[in-house]
Automatic annotation (TrEMBL):
Matches recorded under SUPFAM superfamilies: Aconitase iron-sulfur domain
Family according to the record: Belongs to the aconitase/IPM isomerase family. LeuC type 1 subfamily.
The protein's name in its UniProt record: 3-isopropylmalate dehydratase large subunit
Catalytic reactions on record: (2R,3S)-3-isopropylmalate = (2S)-2-isopropylmalate
Function summary: Catalyzes the isomerization between 2-isopropylmalate and 3-isopropylmalate, via the formation of 2-isopropylmaleate.
InterPro entries: 3-IsopropMal_deHydase_lsu (IPR004430), Acnase/IPM_dHydase_lsu_aba_1/3 (IPR015931), Acoase/IPM_deHydtase_lsu_aba (IPR001030), Aconitase_4Fe-4S_BS (IPR018136), Aconitase_4Fe-4S_dom (IPR036008), IPM_dehydratase_rel_enz (IPR050067), IPMI_cat (IPR033941)
HAMAP family per UniProt: LeuC_type1
Entry EC no(s): 4.2.1.33
Gene3D superfamilies: Aconitase, domain 3
Organism of origin: Mangrovibacterium diazotrophicum
């Protein structure tokens, strides 16, 4: 038999039909929806007189537009309130499970799926959101789709997709002190660029990857899309299986035994062919920070911004335009640069492990006087765990306050916007112009690097405190 990649094994098992000379019709196991990309899809179904085909395989929660304070009160912004209310109405009308504001299951869509056990190895998973790639950490094929495709999945539980090329990125060795999964991701993107993964699905491999926790793997896969890839995935192992076992929607009894036996077969065969391969040494990675306006413009926190002397034409123009927006100069050192806001949260770094790391760093320290810190759990479950572990008390003693679950300052679609011209060290996933608010300047980093900035008020190497 021909050696197959992990991606091939899952994809091929879900192909319902091959359109001659065209895409595959792919069956979807789990469909996640939120309030932003679903209303038009539901309207399309209604217009065509169609029902949701398999409502039990769709899960909904509002996250992008929700406020992260006073969630017990009516949402002030009319558009946001309408979208959140419409999601609830559409789910009620179609028999879809909906985890609304304040409910135990509420949170960022890519965080509640794994923590409930809805996300499992071997699945195909889609959502009208680019960071659906997060779920690939479990050895699943997970990718974002557009609104018309959301309608297609609601109507048929299938989607038409061309089969992507395959890439393997291997990271071998032991990570250094203060280096996290977020730093691996930003390092990879800085090396292969924001278009390096275009047309591919990435499988991450190597000892540095298999030594990551599930939370770390989710962070890494979450950022796959920022290299231009369709998604990212990691072969399931004992770490994966231990994480899923016992969760609310995980298989039970004999069904668990059968599922576990199948999951253990989900790995790339020896000799399986990838279209593109990269190999990196974990020892070369240090805590990362971005300096520009795309996630590929990143470097080690101890390093200086490139001079751009080797760039020509549009590359040079883009580089200089980005630095002008950030009000940085070629050759500037990153350490010591002023910080105004710190944001811990999002589907990239809004899990309990991220808050534990941040809390451990700031324990016994005080927030810098002129820095605003937003600590936003990725779900109600994470919020509850933060409080039960007493992490909120550590934050309070450091002069910081815990907020309520939501996408928050990851994107300017809710009240948590960074003011124009201000610098925000953000644990989220995108640093585009205006992403966190009109004129906001975003520096992507790990929870540890964010914590270091929160207590010093400037870009700081977290290793100096560890």
């Amino acid at each position: 038999m021909e050696a197959k990649t992990l991606f091939d094994k899952i994809w091929d098992a879900h192909v319902v039909k091959q359109v001659e000379g065209g895409p595959n019709v792919l069956y979807i196991d789990r469909h996640f929806i939120h309030e932003v990309t679903s209303p038009v899809a539901f309207l399309g179904l209604k217009t065509r007189g169609l029902k949701v085909f398999r409502p039990d395989q769709t899960t909904a929660t509002p996250d992008h537009n929700v406020p992260t304070i006073n969630q017990n009160m009516s949402i002030v912004d009319e558009l946001s309130r309408n979208q959140v209310e419409m999601l609830k109405k559409n789910c009620e009308a179609n028999g879809i499970t909906h985890y609304g504001l304040g409910s135990d299951g509420h949170g960022v869509v890519h965080i509640i799926g794994p923590e409930m056990g809805l996300t499992q190895p071997g699945m195909t998973i889609v959502c009208g959101d680019s960071h659906t790639s997060t779920h690939g950490a479990f050895g699943a094929i997970a990718f974002g789709i557009g609104t018309s495709e959301v309608e297609m999945v609601l109507a048929s539980q299938c989607i038409m997709q061309p089969k992507p090329k395959k890439m393997r990125i291997t990271v071998e060795g032991q990570l250094g002190k203060g280096v996290t999964a977020k730093d691996i991701a930003l390092y990879i993107i800085s090396k292969i660029s924001t278009s390096g993964g275009t047309g591919h699905f990435i499988e991450y491999a190597g000892s540095a990857i298999t030594n990551l926790t599930m939370e770390g793997r989710m962070t890494l896969c979450n950022l796959s899309i920022e290299s231009g890839a369709r998604g990212g995935m990691i072969a399931p192992d004992e770490t994966t299986i231990s994480y899923v076992k016992g969760r609310k929607f995980a298989p039970q009894g004999e069904a668990w035994d059968k599922a576990e036996a199948y999951w253990k077969t989900l790995k790339s065969d020896e000799g399986a062919k990838f279209d593109t391969e990269y190999v990196f040494d974990a020892a070369d990675i240090e805590p990362m920070i971005t300096y520009g306006t795309n996630p590929g413009m990143g470097l080690g926190v101890s390093q200086s911004i490139p001079t751009g002397s080797e760039l020509q034409g549009t590359d040079k123009t883009t580089f200089l335009k980005s630095l002008k927006y950030m009000d940085f100069n070629p050759g500037d050192a990153m350490k010591g640069k002023k910080v105004d806001y710190v944001f811990l949260g999002s589907c990239t770094n809004g899990r309990i492990e991220d808050f534990r790391a941040f809390a451990q760093f700031v324990k016994g320290k005080k927030k810098a006087d002129d820095v605003t810190v937003w600590l936003v759990p990725g779900s109600k479950a994470v919020e509850t765990q933060i409080i039960s572990e007493g992490l909120d008390k550590i934050f309070t003693e450091a002069g910081m306050a815990l907020r309520q679950p939501g996408c928050s300052a990851c994107l300017a679609m809710n009240d948590d916007k960074i003011p124009e011209g201000k610098y925000a060290v953000s644990t989220s996933n995108r640093n585009f112009e205006g992403r966190q608010g009109p004129g906001a300047r975003t520096l992507l980093a790990s929870p540890l690097t964010a914590a270091a900035a929160a207590v010093t008020g400037v870009i700081t190497d977290p290793r100096e405190f560890l």
